[in-house]
Amino acid sequence: MTVLARSIGAVLFYLFLGELAAAQTSDVKCQPVNTSGMAQTLRCDGGITITAENGAQYTLNDTNRDGRVDSVELGSQAILLEVPKVAKGKRFTVTTPQAIAAVRGTKWAVDTTAQKTSVFVVNGRVSVGRRSATRGGVILGPGEGVDVEGTAPLVVKRWAPARVAALMARLGQ
Questions:
Q1: Range list of β-strands (E), the chain
Q2: pLDDT per position in the chain (173 positions), as tens?
Q3: Helix then strand then coil, % of the chain, to nearest 5
Q4: N or C, fewer C-beta in 10 Å, the chain?
Q5: From CA 25, how far away is CA 62, in angstroms rounded?
């Protein structure tokens, strides 16, 4: 019953906030800590922080059923994640229509549309691959990003400061 009550509470909270990011949760423990005109921030058990652009469509998941979010399905717009180092053999993933980004601990942003997913690393390292492929991914380091679009090759690039600033501004950073 607690799960149902928490789920109903989360739905009412997000309906009340209207245009803010629309998150669905699957029994994860996250609390809203900041809502600005541009973004909403959630703090989750395990030290995970998720900042979602207003209007972002995403679902938080607990795939190993330990009560902590360990993956996000992002359908549209952008999120910024801070994930502390996780135990060996475990990963935190973000899945979009085009890509899967996985880490063991870092701070990074994922921005997606129906045609393209962009991943940018603030610090740490992020593995990015196509959702439909089991190989051929890339590893991003601080200041690097990649665009996953159609069948174009995954090319790691150092993002221009203007591109980084524009994305971070959408996330209230």
A1: 22-25, 30-35, 39-44, 48-53, 57-61, 71-83, 92-95, 99-103, 106-112, 116-123, 126-130, 138-140, 144-149, 157-158
A2: 333 333 333 333 333 333 344 555 456 689 999 777 789 999 999 899 999 999 999 999 999 888 889 999 999 999 999 999 877 778 899 999 999 999 988 999 999 999 999 999 999 999 999 988 767 799 999 999 999 998 889 999 999 999 999 999 999 99
A3: 15, 45, 40
A4: N
A5: 9
CATH number at residue 43: 2.60.120.1440
Question: What's the domain count of the chain?
Answer: 1
Domain of residue 40, residue span: 2-170
The pair of structure tokens assigned to 97 is: 């229509």
Phi then psi for 10, rounded to 5 degrees? -65, -45
What 3-state class would DSSP assign to 82? strand
